[in-house]
């Protein structure tokens, strides 16, 4: 008798279509499982043998299904939704065939199945907190822009307040003489902003209280321009750093790794991929301004790329964001803090010059200028 090797699940809002498949690809059974009562899903998983693979697309409602599968001793797996659709292009589509197709993809092997990251519950909790804060901050920005719109509509300027939304600025806004409808709209939006600010502060206090418990956050905060909130958000979106084989993989995950764009032998320039973790990309781009201001190394990279592409200054921002993420990968994998003056790489010209100078026991003025920032600090002090 054929045994169930893999279970393909096509998840929907109200129900899931389930296809149970043997190792030889034979469909043993299909059924619908309603979502009104989670007990029905738990009972189905408990009927399966421990270690059975359960495959589903990484849609909006996979977490609770994956958690129930893990509790039942099964092995849940996520398929990259967009790539799965691309592989199924041209095929007949319905719920049953979608579930069967996912199961067949899994049986085809890891080189065929486009597996996506199944974040553990601890990582999902971190992401939920940070993304909630990000959402509230975006709403606050929209509300502030709306208030500025009211002021521009009636030609009102508040030059006496440097911070229009600080304590002094809000008092000025409340005392403004505006038509009754505009005054009512202004008061309502100011009250909403005040309430929204309390929620944001509450989330930030909670995040700051959790950060000291994670040593990785301390490493990331050694990067100039990376504060506690950005460090927390980066850790939440990255998850386990071990799942990225190298630093380029992390940069590609955040959508800041330039990709070739060629056709018919013509080079159309590099481009970045929009199919990425947009939250991680946003955080890396947000950190660029502070990083460029606080690190001469990053500022030098920014100026070089900006001079090379004067008509597209955004390339310089993306270049620094990529460098920041690649350095973060190195720091997290090796457990070392940020170094403004990194040691020369093995086999590099600077490394060879350093070794030769140590053998000679001296550093000439020309050699020291060639070595630049990679010269040993104690030797630089001796020369000075």
Range of strand content = 5-15%
- Structural class category: alpha/beta
Mean pLDDT: 84
Strand count, sense and barrel status of the largest sheet are: 6 strands, mixed
Major beta sheet, strand line-up: 3-2-1-4-5-6
Percentage of residues assigned to helices: 55-70%
Computed CA radius of gyration, to the nearest angstrom: 27 Å
Query: Helix tally?
Result: 16
Question: Looking at the structure, what is the overall shape?
Answer: globular
Number of strands: 8
- Taken in chain order, the helices and strands follow as EEEHEHEHHEHHHHHHEEHHHHHH
In terms of per-residue confidence, which ranges show pLDDT below 50 for 5 or more consecutive residues?
359-384
Instruction: Compute the number of structural domains.
Output: 4
Distance between the termini: 83 Å
